[in-house]
């Protein structure tokens, strides 16, 4: 039975087992500081395979990078990571998204694998199956990767694995969908269609302020400055799922940054009408009125509006004017395009929309600025023709 020489790292012994496999034994110092050594084993189909593993292990023990293999499955670690790490560092609805991605995608495929056995290839194969078999979008696969990568990165930090295999995976390319802002004629038809609608004011403010749906639903009267024509956007309406049903709350904005938006005087007049409408609803509801969050847009009893109700009402309107494919978010796009074509610079549009960077705004609306550049060139051509 061939043996490896004992050294400062412990010992290495290789032998063939009765089941035909080769086993290599090595020793590591006990973590309790007692000075005792614990015997560990590695296995392989060939003697040389085991010898290579032992050589790598003893080298890692020498330079202090050795991590003892743990018999922990990915699904068990994901539960620990979600509750002990992720839950403490992200917003509630983000945490629920993490939970959903783990439950619906990661655990069913990779959950029963031991952490130490998860390889670059196994993760890459998993990502490929999400795209090719489940037909998930590139963006969804990217979101799955984000969760798995974070979980494995934390496993690396706490010493459960020696490297993060997800670092070396290739993700499908995310292609930005072409935005579909409303044309001027469409906007005129839309405004005509919402006249007298229960949600006329909220549709109007969304269209001409560029707010996200969750932001306009969370707008409070203390954030409306009628003197300076300002809106202070510092929160959004969020939804979390509980066994008793959806639970709503006011949380920070999408990027957790507040912003001021200077709006057109006409928008402020609409908000003044909304204030008067709310006073009338309050008088009519009497003691049943309960606008506990001081919201600008509520139902007849002062309660917050639900996104699903707003969306369904919006879709009925756009279908009635022959625009069934228009989404509520396209009102925000329409605002941005109108602002750029009216002469606002990209930095101003970025600030009003609440984007993290101007480059992100350019990625979405760059084609609009190119159209303006072409118009600028045409204007210069007219100038040149006048002076030569």
Descriptive tags:
single chain; 388 residues; alpha+beta; Double Stranded RNA Binding Domain; DNA polymerase, domain 1; hpI Integrase, Chain A; 4-stranded antiparallel sheet; 3-stranded antiparallel sheet; 13 helices; 9 strands; 51% helix
Q: How many strands appear in the DSSP assignment?
A: 9
* Secondary-structure arrangement, i.e. CATH architecture of the largest domain: Orthogonal Bundle
Largest sheet: 4 strands, antiparallel
Give the DSSP E fraction (strand runs of 2 or more residues).
5-15%
Radius of gyration: 30 Å
The SSE string, one letter per element, is: EEEEHHHHHHHHEEEEEHHHHH
Number of helices: 13
Domain count, please report it.
3
N- to C-terminal distance: 97 Å
What do you see in this structure?
This protein is an alpha+beta fold and 388 residues long. It folds into 3 domains: 3-63, 2-Layer Sandwich (Double Stranded RNA Binding Domain), CATH 3.30.160.40; 74-168, Orthogonal Bundle (DNA polymerase, domain 1), CATH 1.10.150.130; 184-372, Orthogonal Bundle (hpI Integrase, Chain A). It has helices spanning 47-63, 74-89, 92-110, 120-132, 138-157, 184-193, 200-209, 213-217, 265-285, 307-320, 329-341, 346-353, 358-387; strands at residues 3-7, 10-16, 22-29, 37-44, 224-225, 230-233, 236-242, 245-251, 259-262. The strands form 3 sheets. Strands 1-2-3-4 form a 4-stranded antiparallel sheet, with helices on one face. Strands 5-6-9 form a 3-stranded antiparallel sheet. A hairpin with a 7-residue loop joins strand 3 (22-29) and strand 4 (37-44). The model is unreliable at 1-10 (pLDDT under 50).
């Amino acid at each position: 039975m061939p043996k490896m020489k004992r050294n400062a790292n412990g010992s290495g012994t290789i032998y063939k087992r009765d089941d035909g496999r080769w086993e290599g034994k090595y020793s590591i110092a006990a973590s309790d500081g007692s000075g005792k050594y614990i015997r560990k084993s590695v296995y392989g189909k060939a003697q040389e395979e085991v010898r290579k593993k032992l050589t790598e292990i003893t080298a890692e023990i020498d330079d202090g990078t050795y991590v003892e293999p743990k018999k922990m499955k990915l699904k068990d670690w994901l539960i620990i990571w979600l509750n002990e790490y992720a839950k403490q560092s992200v917003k509630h609805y983000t945490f629920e998204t993490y939970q959903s991605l783990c439950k619906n995608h990661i655990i069913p495929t990779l959950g029963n694998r031991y952490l130490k056995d998860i390889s670059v290839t196994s993760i890459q194969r998993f990502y490929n199956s999400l795209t090719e078999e489940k037909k998930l979008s590139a963006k969804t696969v990217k979101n799955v990767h984000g969760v798995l990568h974070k979980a494995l990165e934390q496993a690396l930090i706490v010493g459960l694995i020696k490297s993060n295999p997800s670092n070396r995976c290739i993700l499908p390319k995310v292609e930005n969908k072409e935005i579909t802002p409303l044309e001027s004629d469409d906007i005129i038809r839309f405004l005509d269609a919402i006249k007298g609608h229960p949600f006329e004011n909220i549709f109007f403010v969304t269209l001409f302020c560029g707010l996200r749906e969750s932001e306009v639903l969370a707008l409070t009267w203390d954030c409306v400055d009628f003197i300076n024509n300002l809106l202070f956007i510092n929160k959004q309406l969020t939804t979390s799922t509980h066994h008793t049903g959806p639970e709503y709350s006011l949380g920070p904005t999408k990027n957790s940054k507040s912003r001021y938006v200077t709006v057109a005087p006409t928008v402020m007049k609409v908000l003044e009408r909304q204030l008067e409408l709310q006073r009338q609803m309050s008088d009519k509801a009497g003691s049943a009125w309960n606008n506990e969050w001081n919201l600008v847009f509520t139902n007849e009893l002062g309660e917050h509006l639900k996104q699903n109700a707003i969306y369904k009402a919006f879709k009925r309107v756009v279908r009635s004017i022959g625009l069934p494919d228009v989404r509520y978010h396209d009102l925000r796009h329409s605002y941005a395009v109108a602002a750029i074509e009216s002469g606002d610079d990209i930095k101003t549009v970025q600030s009003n929309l609440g984007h993290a960077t101007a480059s992100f705004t350019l990625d979405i609306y760059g084609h609009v600025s190119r159209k303006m550049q072409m118009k600028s060139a045409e204007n210069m051509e007219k100038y040149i023709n006048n002076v030569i």
